[in-house]
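It is worth pausing here to work through a concrete case rather than discussing structure prediction in the abstract. The textbook approach is simple: state the sequence, then state the predicted structure, then interpret. We follow exactly that order.
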Amino acid sequence: MQIKEKPYVLLVAELIYLKVSEIKKLNPDFSNITAIENFIGTETYKEIGSGKFHENLMNKLKNSNFIDKITKKKIPKDTIEILQIQKEVMIKQLIQFPELYYTKSHFPLEISQRAFDHLWRMCESYELWCKETKQLDLIYLKIID
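Step two, the predicted structure:
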């Protein structure tokens, strides 16, 4: 099977998806919900939520003169702008208050629930891309089923 080229805007979704999948593989009794909850507060979560992931990506792209290393084509300006917007959204959605995740009643705080919902949508988006590009072997969590 030929792997289709991933759009740059899917890189963060793929990273989140793979990290949540790793958590679930290490803990087979975890539900997808529990795996995503355990992803919150990890180093990867902090890197994405702080904007460092996108900053590193942009620096790599800048150093290559915005030429894709695989296709050897110039990365469109629209893609770069979308990555900037994505960075801002990640910072807002994954606001970092890990010590405030649950209230005394064990319900997630609104901020934590917003982060969880965003992570769920990122995983869902990745699975949809895998399904649309017929790369079903990359779907581990089966969120869209």
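Step three, interpretation. The chain has a mean pLDDT of 87. The two ends are 22 Å apart (CA to CA).
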